[in-house]
Every structure is written in structure tokens, then in C-alpha cells.
Amino acid sequence: MKGLQGLGALWETAASIIPLTAILAILQIFVLKKPLHSVKDFSIGFLLSVVGLHLFLKGTTMSLIPLGDSVGRNFVMIERKWLILIIGFAIGYCATLVEPGLKALALEVEELSSGAIPYKLLIQGVALGFGGGMAIGLLKILLNVPYIKVLIPLLLVVMILAFFAPEPFGAIAFDAASATTGPVNIPINMALAVGLASVIEGVDPLISGFGIVGLTSIGSMISVMILGILTKI
User: Fold this and answer.
1) Tens of pLDDT, residues 64-111
2) Which of 14, 60, 195, 219 could share a disulfide with 69, CB 3.0–4.6 Å?
3) Does residue 166 surpass a pLDDT of 80?
């Protein structure tokens, strides 16, 4: 019975990848009239992507999400609330360093800029902003501040920095914000925020527990634009 459930879950993962793969393959072969470079490598790669994504999602459900929820619920045991912010910053920073989407973006930027925007520098800049956004999000939950009162000032900062950040840092900042919201960060951030909001008296976890992913993305945008301004100076 467990074997059938496992196969069913594996098929669900494959079913989510098949449409995208089919569209790209049809475009390559029938529309663009270009052959696949290696049918064997393509087939093996597809199977590996299905198995890898399935195992990653299963592992995340079994480990990262429950662990993040437990840590968030037990944050209230820390008497010095500023320690919660430091821990949140550290978690956001470290999680961003292993985000695969961000690594792909940073490598592409380094290649297209001929090394002018180093891979490691961009990742470190994004991670610092993400950690800062994580700390702001946790502070919002601890103080039970309405989301709009935090969001508007941060968006104003983004708009101001966009005028001063040199190209292409403005565009990179927007892509970096999206690249950080990947399979590593989202489960951890949401679990931490919802877990913390669910144990604070007077805080609605549905209202205050969500939105932290957006704040971390804005933090990443701000840090990348500041990085661009600093490099220009």
C-alpha cells in the first residue's frame, strides 16, 4: 500500500513537469526546427529532475517545514526579543546562500558582465538583504504591526533607490528578489513566521503569519540596489 502511495506521489511530481517539458520540446523540434542535442541525455535528465524534485519536496515536508514551525513556536521562550531578530537574520542569510535559483542568476550575471559583477559578491549582497527582510518580518509579528505600515515605507525606499542605482543593478534587484523565493527559503520562512504568530497572544497567524516572504524579497531588492550604488561610488 505504501509502495502504491509512493508511486502515486512520484507520478504527481512527474505530471507537474511533463507539460513544461512537452511545450519546450515541441517548440524546439516542430516550431524552431531544431533537433535535441542528445535524446539520451535529455531522457536521463528528465528522469533525474522528476526523482530529484520528488525527493526534495518529500524531504522538505518531513524536515524543513516541521522544524521551522517548531522553532517559530518556541521563539517566545527567548526573553531577549532582539535575539529573535538576530537568529531570524542568520536563518534568512544562511538559507539564501544555498538557494539554487539565486546561484543560477548570479552565475549568469557574472558571465554577462564579464566578471564586473562577481558571483560571490552578488550572492552575499542578496543574502544580507534577505536576512534583513526576515528580521523586519519577525519584528512585525512580535509587535503585531499591520502589514501595510511596514510595506509602504519599504516600497518607498525601493523607489528612491531605483533612481540612484546604476544599470543594470535595478533590473538585477528585481530578478534577485524572485530568485530568493525558491524551494529552500519559502518553506523555512513561512513555517517560522506562522509558528511564531500562532503562539503570540492577540496575534492572528492568518493575518500576521503570512507576508514575510514578500518582505524578504523587498529586503533583497534594497540590498542589491545599495550594492550597485556603493560600486558606483
Assistant:
1) 778 788 888 888 788 788 898 999 999 999 989 888 888 889 999 999
2) 195
3) yes
C-alpha cell at 142: 512580535
For the cut 90, the answer to whether the pLDDT of residue 157 exceeds it is yes
126, three cell numbers: 542578496
SS (H, E, C) the chain: CHHHHHHHHHHHHHHHHHHHHHHHHHHHHHHCCCCCCCHHHHHHHHHHHHHHHHHHHHHHHHHHHHHHHHHHHHHHHCCCHHHHHHHHHHHHHHHHHCCHHHHHHHHHHHHHCCCCCCHHHHHHHHHHHHHHHHHHHHHHHHHCCCHHHHHHHHHHHHHHHHHHCCCCHHHHHHHHHHHHCCCCHHHHHHHHHHHHHCCCCCCCHHHHCCCHHHHHHHHHHHHHHHHHHHHHC
Question: Would you kindly state where each structural domain of the chain is located, as residue ranges?
Answer: 63-232
Closest CA to 59 of 194, 183, 213: 183
Longest dimension (CA), the chain: 65
Contact at 8 Å (CB) between 224 and 129? yes
